[in-house]
């Protein structure tokens, strides 16, 4: 389906939690460090499973990636006044649920620019407020909710492991690269992702 | 004057500017001449006056050396360092030095007069006619009065000159801290204070008859005076400046910041005709277009009414405002701005109004942010509650305020916009499209589940908050506080400074740009303000009042309040504590410090003042057991000589201001890396023992020993087999050759030893 040499021109298939697939350009996908770590050098055979996120969320995330393909290299979060009209519209169109889903997906895919903008947007929600005002704008979770959150993160760790395994399978099928380096790369990627998410779950 | 002092004196003379020392020399010569003339009038035998003449000559030499040292050791290096932190401590250092200077001067006066009395005067008096010194006390006091007045005048001139010649050019080359603590009025104030004080001294001294007591009293009085000066000046930089200023004579602070800000506040609401023309032009030709070009949609639908209103507001500007700004510009701003970093005022034109015009053109973004904030629900109550407090913080630092005012003009605009909002804008805005203020801010209908976000995202959010926001957020719930604590590694490093005297805790970033202050006050100080709200801190429900860059908390038990807040802050920021110079004056200091020691919390800096009381000796016993938790210990007073002080542990660095109680045995057991002993009574033979111990591997941690003792002199007692003068610039090494040390002799009987490993 893809080759590393022409990753900017080719399209990748992304699989959502509903089982639907859709195309994303290599250039857009390369903004995801998670993708870079797993597939960039070895290519992907078949749809890439990001099955922890629904289609609408993933499309929203990659819509941002597609838009920012031609922007200069990211150099830290910008002030809101530096944001373009498109950026403002992009964020303002989202309701709270979608916004949270986008943050989660962006965080998982490790899209630095988008995550950073989302964080800045939340931080602005807290700026200039005293404690009472902050309490009004944020939800303080109960113990049960925190327990549920831990389970979700464990689930995500499992999903990350699954993605890594997929990458490993792809790597085994890849004949363009030497066997030993690919295995090492896949194993390293797998270990890295597993460690990352397990560590979150254990915190 | 010893030979080594003279040698140093000569070296420095060559390096220092001639004019200052020319000036000093003239001043001192005049002083000594005056001494001589006054004393001659007393009609004492010639030999006494010969002796006095010599004494005073020495005194003037000493004055000269003191001032020279002030210049060479304190002022010049400080001023020549033009990093952004240069002037952070500068004024305090000057006055700290000034304080010592006056103390030393009083010591010298005391010694001279005592010597005069004990060795010469008394015998002479007794053997001469009873009429000889009939008028003596009055003359002495008259002389002293004049002396102190002159002295203060001279100091004043020196400091003023120092300021005009050194500080201002330095300011012009700094950037961020341009007008942070520029002390123009401080010197005026200082001068008058000292004059008044000398009057008071004179009156008190006139009432005293016993010569011995007079000198003792005088010594203490001047010490207290300098302490008081120091405190007053310190206060000037604190929150208490405004009351202090307002309670002083109207002549002292004719140009009091209170008036300035009051005036500014009024002026800014009005505007000069010239501003009007600029802004009118801007309005007609540029503004609308500019606004529409910036932040594309921000002012797209902005009604004409705003500009119409703006035009009217600006029309009211007074000529007086213009003159003040022009003066400000010509005296301070232009020079400073022209040499500030290229990014700050890169486009600063010669004409401030030209600059103003451009600034205002670019202000659309700022306008937008302010208006945006105004538009939110919280702004209006905030405005109404802050109306009284708008300028409350200003007096802390007038130049900080000016700098901010000029650089950003946000305060001014804020007030203009505030008025605009209250009178016109709100109805106008409410009738415009909702899209006018649609922006990047979240405006969700339901509360946002912050703690349900991924941990990395939470971390990013916490990281982008400033100190105030982090503290405010941490008070929301224990769980959030814990989360912030978990992400402390990603947080900025902060300094938590305890000031029990003012009952505040300052929390500031390492670069001092981000500052927040928490006040801990008794419940009785609660004002019946609508802004008082309840907070849960460390399982206690307390009432709090929010301020700009700070908050006051009200506690049934202030000690509990301090400990709770400290514990909370240290948990969030994981930093060490420091105690301010003033803290020891508070009754809360001792229990807080001891409690923090019990909790094994570490101190970055601990300043204590141990006086001659049994209670403080007990405090010392308790502190000395925990000095391992202290990085830098500063002891600013002497212990009771009868009390045998024991260091059961040592800090990493130690500085003792009056170290007469610090014996050779104590020094030999000291494990600190930096030891500074002032006013020590150690002698040549003691210093010899110290050096010999170091050579044989003693003081393994030592990096710097700074020892000032009048008893270490070139009196023939050898140190390491050498005379004292021979030790200057001498490099010695340990017997095993692992380390070397450079010995330097400084002024005022100070010896410095720098230890470095052999390369």
From TrEMBL, chain A:
Keyword flag Hydrolase: no
TM segment ranges: none
GO biological process: ubiquitin-dependent protein catabolic process
Domain SKP1 component POZ, chain residue ranges per copy: 14-69
Pfam families: Skp1 (PF01466), Skp1_POZ (PF03931)
The family this protein is said to belong to: Belongs to the SKP1 family.
Protein name: Skp1-related protein
Organism encoding this protein: Caenorhabditis remanei (Caenorhabditis vulgaris)
Higher taxonomy: Eukaryota, Metazoa, Ecdysozoa, Nematoda, Chromadorea
TrEMBL record, chain B:
Any Pfam family the entry gives: FBA_2
Secretion signal, residue range per the UniProt entry: none
Domain F-box span(s) in chain numbering: 447-493
Gene3D superfamilies, sorted: Leucine-rich Repeat Variant
Transmembrane segments: none
Coiled coil: none
Protein known as: F-box domain-containing protein
Organism: Caenorhabditis remanei (Caenorhabditis vulgaris)
